[in-house]
Structure formats: C-alpha cells, structure tokens
Write a structure and sequence with these properties.
It is a single chain. The protein is α/β, with parallel strands linked by helices and 443 residues long. The chain contains 18 helices and 14 strands. The protein folds into two domains: 199 residues, NAD(P)-binding Rossmann-like Domain (Rossmann fold); 218 residues, NAD(P)-binding Rossmann-like Domain (Rossmann fold), CATH 3.40.50. Helix 9 packs across helix 11 and helix 12 crosses helix 13. It is globular. The structure holds uridine-5'-diphosphate-xylopyranose. Uridine-5'-diphosphate-xylopyranose binds next to helix 9.
C-alpha cells in the first residue's frame, strides 16, 4: 500500500467485532492497535490466537503481527498516537429490561478521552440506540475540542466475519452536522477504506441518526423475515403444508428472495434478539413505540419455535419422558461459530434438561462456552457419542457434520430412530428410507 494511505487506528474492544476489525484493518495495510480491558483476551490475541472460533481470524492475526502492522494492549495509552479510534465494545441487553446496556461504550469513551488528540476521529461501530452518537459527540467535543465522532455501523456475520469485513457489501458513514468536520472525518475514513471503496463497494454518507438506525433497521428486517417464515411454519403445521416448499416458491420472487427464509428453531446470537428488543425499547422512549410494535411479535414467534421443538421431543418420548435419553446436536446459535449467546439450540437443551429429560448435547465448537453457562448439562464430544442409546435425536444447529450424518450409521447407534430436524436441513426422504421417523419444522 502507498504509505500515504496508511492510517493509524485503534480498536477499542476486542470481542467478535473488534478483534476481526483490528485484524482486517491490518490486512488492509493500516497500523492497528487493539485495546481491551480483558487481560486474558489480549494475551491470546498478542500471541496470534483467536479468543473465539472464527474461520480465518488466526491467520489474519498472525499475518498482521508478523508484518508489524498489528499489536494489542490493555493500556489505552497505546492508542494515543492514532488518527482513528473504533469503538467496538458490546452493547448487551440490560438485565431486567429490553433496552441496551451502554455501560461499556461510555466506559470506553471515558477511558479514551485522556489520550484523544484534536483532529482524531472516534468511530462508533457498536450497535446503539438512536441518539447515542449525538450524546457521545457532545462528550468528546467538551473534553477534547477538535476531536470528532463518526458512526460507521458494522454488518459482519459471525462465521463470515473476516470476509464481510474485508469485502463489505456497503459502507455507511454517519458524519457530524458541521460541513468542515464532516469532511475531515470522511477524508480519514475514505483513506482507511480506500481498498474496498476502489473495488466499487457502495458508500452511503449520512447523519448520525440515520447511520445508527441503518444497523437496527437491517437486523430488524432480517429478524422479521425469519419470524415471517416461522409464522408460516406454524400455519403449515396446522394445515399439513410444507414450509420449505412454500419458502422455495415465494423465494423465487426476486422482490422476496430465498435468503433468510429458512424456518426452524429460530434466530439467536449476540445481535438479532437483543437488537430488536433494544429498538422497541428505544422507540417506546421516543414515544413512537407503535411504529415497531411488530418487533415484539417477531420476538414472540421466534421464542415459540423453541417451545415447539421441546413439545415435539416430549411428544415423541411419551408420558414417561423423564430420564429418557435425548441427543441434542448443536449448541451454537448457528454453524461456524462457538457463540452461544441467546442460542436457540442451547435453550432447547437447557429446557429439556430442566424438564428431567436425559439430555446429551454436542457441538463441534461451542461445548466450552455452553458448559461455562450450563454446567448441569451432559456433553459428548461427537455426534456418534451423543446419539448412542438416544430415544430421540434433535438437530438444532445445522453444522455440516450433522447435515452429512449418515442416517444408517446413526440408526445402528440409537435406541429408537426418531429425528427432529429443528433446522429443516436434513434430507427427509433419505432419513425415512433408512428407517427413521423424521419430524421437521412446519413440514
Ligand atoms: C447478524 C446479521 O446478519 C449481521 O449483518 C449483523 O452484523 C449481526 O447480526 P449474525 O448474528 O452473525 O449476524 O447471524 P446471522 O447469520 O444473521 O443469523 C442469525 C440467526 O438467524 C442465527 O441463529 C441463524 O440460525 C438464524 N437464521 C438465519 C434462521 O433461523 N433462518 C434463516 O433463514 C437465517
């Protein structure tokens, strides 16, 4: 890269979002320091090890560090020299409320302020309630005149985070209202994203509020699309229709599209569930709660699908379901991730265990995280071990190894060949041909 285009950037918060962002910026040729208050996480990252499962991340970390482009620190002083400071800390759901907890983002800005220089730009990446950027901009301007704030929402998907960061499908800038300040912030961001912009990535420059809303609107739309098809699954279950065929048929309409129309146990993860709840909570605060009241319904439909899977398991086990062995395939909220935050798969395992069912759960990556939260569960290292002696097999995360699981081999291991396909990802005919009772979601 032309040295003139190299930007010195800090990334505050090195979780799923920040670690990937830091490594990706280094891969784009910039000089990056990742800062986090978690010493263990920083120690791992500084050794070039990803603190969580994310395909491609470890390679990128090692490449960035051996090129001398990437370092990590627990000390905010390490960010002093940077032109851009990305805020990539979590904004989880607040305990006992639907709203987002902004403690970490305020703490990050407060810790950064002593090191912030006039002319530097703080760039928000975290998902926040609309209005947060304005508040932070005022705080920054009061403490460090000449330092600026921009909002640059992140749309990366776990499991594809590296790809999504290096080759985003759009870039959004929320810029200050003052024209000169907006121009200064935009110039630095343009320099940072020179590569994706040169390859034709669309850029939308707008105000803070719109940039904040873009993120929650996108996630709300995706959540709504999933809950829409899951609502159709509920109807299909009543009338005996097949929701997967229905999704194929409506998905051919280009205005609708087939993506995110997979009915199943529903959405989870660190974003969709908490983002729709926080959006509803923020809209309520603003007196416009009715505009997004459908999001409460989206959430309710989503949570009902987990209950549905549990009901199917209990119905298959019969009245004396207690202590009967059930294999739960999957714990992560989706494949290619070890993330169990608000995971429908883990929730199903925990609910069944709570009802006295003898659950044995497995996942290629997420057992460690699941065990930390729910040590009461029994875990097996492989699908073969998990299904051994099971009376029902329930698939709740569509990892490739489970989709490819040989139904004949599995048949030889189980006590009773009943499979509940909570992700509609198995070939129903193939499983039935191998002697299984196959139950899908909405089919
Ligand atoms: C999401 C957004 O996609 C991303 O743009 C944003 O930046 C963060 O939130 P992520 O949480 O990584 O990303 O997961 P995503 O791939 O969107 O899946 C979310 C959940 O929806 C998963 O639990 C997945 O299993 C579920 N899902 C997805 C369905 O149930 N059906 C579908 O058709 C698609």
């Amino acid at each position: 890269m032309d040295q003139g285009n190299v930007v010195r950037a800090s990334v505050i918060g090195c979780g799923y979002l920040g670690a990937v962002h830091a490594a990706s910026l280094a891969a784009l040729g910039h000089e990056v320091v990742g800062v986090d208050v978690d010493q263990d996480k920083i120690a791992l990252l500084a050794r070039g090890e990803a603190p969580f499962f994310e395909p491609g991340l470890a390679d990128l970390l090692q490449a960035g560090m051996s090129a001398g482009k990437l370092r990590f620190s627990t000390d905010f002083a390490a960010a002093a020299d940077c032109q851009l400071h990305f805020l990539a800390v979590g904004t989880p759901q607040m305990r006992g409320s639907q709203a987002a907890d902004l403690t970490f983002i305020h703490a990050a800005v407060d810790a950064l302020l002593p090191w912030l220089r006039p002319g530097a730009v703080v760039v928000g990446k975290s998902t926040v309630p609309v209005g947060t950027a304005r508040e932070l901009a005022d705080k920054i301007a009061a403490a460090v005149p000449g330092a600026l704030l921009a909002w640059n929402p992140e749309f990366l998907r776990e499991g594809f985070a590296v790809e999504d960061t290096l080759r985003p499908d759009r870039i959004v800038y929320g810029l200050p209202a003052d024209a000169a300040e907006a121009e200064a912030a935009k110039a630095l961001l343009d320099q940072l994203y020179a590569k994706p912009l040169a390859s034709g990535c669309p850029l939308i420059s707008t105000d803070y509020q719109t940039a904040e809303l873009v993120k929650v609107a996108a996630n709300s739309f995706l959540a709504t699309k999933i809950s829409f098809i899951n609502a159709m699954a509920e109807i299909a279950e009543v009338v005996g229709a097949d929701v997967t065929k229905l999704a194929d048929a409506i998905g051919f309409d280009q205005r609708i599209g087939r993506k995110f129309l997979n009915a199943g146990v529903g959405f989870g993860g660190g974003c969709l569930p908490k983002d729709i709840r926080a959006f509803q909570a923020r809209a309520d605060e603003l007196g416009t709660g009715r505009s997004v009241s459908f999001l409460s319904e989206v959430d309710a439909i989503n949570l009902r699908r987990r209950e549905r899977v549990v009901e199917l398991v209990l119905a298959s086990l019969g009245d004396d379901y207690q202590q009967k062995r059930v294999a739960v395939l999957g714990l992560a909220f989706k494949p290619e991730s070890d993330d169990v935050r608000d995971s429908p798969a883990l929730d199903v395992a925990v609910r069944l265990h709570g009802l006295g069912v003898g659950v044995v759960a497995t996942d290629p990556q997420a057992i460690g995280n699941a065990r930390r939260l729910h040590p009461q569960l029994d875990f097996a290292a492989t699908a073969e071990e998990a299904v051994d002696g099971a009376e029902v097999v329930v698939l709740v995360t569509e990892w490739r190894q489970y989709r490819d699981f040989d139904p004949k081999l599995a048949h030889a291991l189980v006590a009773r060949p009943v499979v509940i396909d909570g992700r509609n990802c198995l070939d129903a005919d193939r499983w039935r041909d191998a002697g299984w009772t196959y139950l899908g979601m909405g089919r």
